[in-house]
Amino acid sequence: MARLVGRRLLFAVPVLLVVTFGVFAIAAASPFDPVKAYAGTAALGADERTLERLRANLGADQPFAARWWDWLTSALGGDFGHSGVLRQPVGQVIAERLVWSALLCAAAFAAAVLVGTALGVLAARRPGSVLDRIVTSLSYTLEAAPVFWIALLAVWLFALRLGVLPAGGLTDTASEQVTFGQVARHLVLPAGVLAVSQLPWFALYVRQGVGDALAEDPVRGARARGLSERTVLLGHALRSGLLPVLTLIGSRVPELITGALLVESVFSWPGIAAATVQAATAVDFPLLAALTTLATAAVLLGNLLADLLYGLFDPRVRFSDM
User: Which domains are seen in the chain, by residue range?
Assistant: First the structure.
């Protein structure tokens, strides 16, 4: 296991270097001017000499490779630079928003895994039944639905039509402090929408895995020994059927991050979505590079976690073979 982690960490270094270099290259080719985005409306009345002086102060007059190298050497020392568009250190921007994005993703992912697994097991128990057809049809429908469409539909139904849940934000408008109850209430809709967007994959994978396991000889032997259907299903078929889901955990991380950005934008959730959009439109090199590096690291860690779980739970797999 230690060798696997070491190899993956060594592999992550060049990947992160290439990703950050690509961010600076793409941002440099963007038609947006970071100096005008930084100056805002003041840039409309500024002369060219003032803009050039501001460009020099921001380092925007340097080649993108030089800016990337300056940012990289500073980042290795713990300094991720200063966000021009948000007027804050990049580390502070991420620290203020990352905890809320992590809370949203963790709650949604846990709900998707638990509910998707339960639906998959129920559908696999009786293939071809009404419940199986309902779960399968609903999963394929939700799988094809864009997450922002589901979010808008949820706002219309639960916030505007029924009025049972808040439409967005972290706390109530009149509240002066953040409380656990308000955060939990405001978390229900965005986490539920994000979970619904991920749930079909787990339901379909578990249905297929458990269905195949029920047809295997060990499960037939357990039934022949007179074990209860509950023991056969949960103790034998589910354990074998969950193995493909472990690999699915890592592969769903990129879409989970992308979906979280859209959900945060719809529900005005104070995560990293707004900062990502602002950094992209304003060509904020330091903030854009840091956020992209963070997302890439999350994807790599998700894949590593999936491999570790697969190696721990499947006796046929050895870490030395990975």
Answer: 2-90 (no CATH), 98-321 (1.10.3720.10)
- Counting Cβ atoms within 10 Å, is residue 55 exposed (0-12), middle (13-18) or buried (19+)? middle
DSSP 8-state assignment for residue 6: H
d(CA 317, CA 322): 8
Distance between CA atoms of 69 and 63, rounded to whole angstroms? 10
Q: What is the pLDDT of residues 189-238, one digit of tens each?
A: 999 999 999 888 888 888 888 877 777 777 677 667 766 767 777 666 77
Determine the Cα angle at 147 with ends 276 and 262, to 5°: 15
19: exposed, middle or buried (Cβ count in 10 Å: 0-12, 13-18, 19+): middle
Residues with Cβ within 8 Å of residue 24, at least 6 apart in sequence: 64, 65, 67, 68, 71, 285, 289
Q: Model-level pTM?
A: 0.78
